[in-house]
Amino acid sequence: MPLKSLNYFIIAMMLGFALLVLIFSGFLEFPSVSSSIPSVIDSKLEVKGSPDPFRSLLGAFKKWDSEVGCAQFKEKHKAKGFPTNGSSSSLQDVDGSVDCGAMKMDHVSILVKGWTWIPDNLDNLYSCRCGLSCLWTKSSVLADKPDAMLFETTRPPSQLPLHPHTNLYSVIVMNEKIHVLNIFCFTLVILIFLFYTTGFLALHFLTGISSYVCKRRKGDPLRVYMDLEAGRKRSGFEDIFIGYHAKDDVQSTYAGALFHNNRNYHLSAFKNNDTLVYWSSSRCLSHRNQLAESLLTMLPHHSFGKCLNNVGGLDMALVLYPECANDANSAPKWWDHLHCAMSHYKFVLAIENTATESYVTEKLFYALDAGAVPIYFGAPNVWDFLPPNSIIDGTKFSSMEELASYVKTLANDPVAYAEYHAWRRCGVLANYGKARAASLDTLPCRLCEAVSRKSGRNARTM
Question: What residue range is the signal peptide (predicted)?
Fold first, then answer.
């Protein structure tokens, strides 16, 4: 039976039912942060001499060079078992050997069809491994016959039959209402299950419609779905899934820099002494607020954003640090001076939305890029993504009081504080190099390689 003959009342009922399922089935996920703190590991600092509430970061580096130095730092962390080149099951080996014989195409085009934050400056024609060329673009003119279509956060549409007289096709494809089609196919799956359990006679009819409407046909572009949120889920309609976890088809970590290259990277050489900690959050999750408040009440801090704000309102960073203005001729945005503002503080509090394996986000990497020391609460395997001695893992302290005491002591010890920057100055990256290599920065070539291995449009259907 052709789609155009379906009763519109039945379609409306199915769409309405799908909306209810989306709300009550856990399709929408609201992550939270666990505030439990395990026992402390090496949280005590050996104070040498009287406290030195230093301000000059370069002065701290100079003292560290004379008392410790890179040779001792490298030997110390080699003895602790940190890999020199980085290896971790939490990261895909994107720099390893590649089987060029598995490549079935020498050119791949990716059309970024649905996105929220993928940067425009990622658009390019890339030269990748094995002689593969890769066109990554948001332009349907440049990629008029894409080998794959990428949908980030926006779920990919299920495939429709190419019948020009089908009303549903006209409504959805011509107007690009892809969410409606997702709901349509999702509803079919749910109704098939319900009708199967009740023995309804329409089972075979709905199964046929679902297979006909939702299945990608050979010759059509591959559908790629990208979800980097904590509760990442496959859409069920994609051929390739991109997520932050090593078990996903293609991994994309948050450790890259391409999506914020246009920001002000003026970094301060002097750190605040009267205000030690920077924190900014505008998504006020109750668990995260409670965790932040329990620590920040014991430390001098500036809280920007909407949550626990103590700087007199929003957009106050440029009032405190006018030198951080990115462009005097345009209205400031919170992100264009973020790194500059962070750089004035010795510490940045970084709390993930939820503590999930491998979910290590920009909250931590921004602080590292800004030359501050992150105080981190989040992924239990966070060290699989980081250089040695680069963060303060808040979960390793037995109490917030102990953590606050450690931070205060560290703030008055230039040599101990400088050691948290030694990885960068001495080139001891460990797994951080792998995390950068598996980030958004390298995603175009890695995705094109995956599409090539599947033969692009000639790939087997789902």
Answer: none
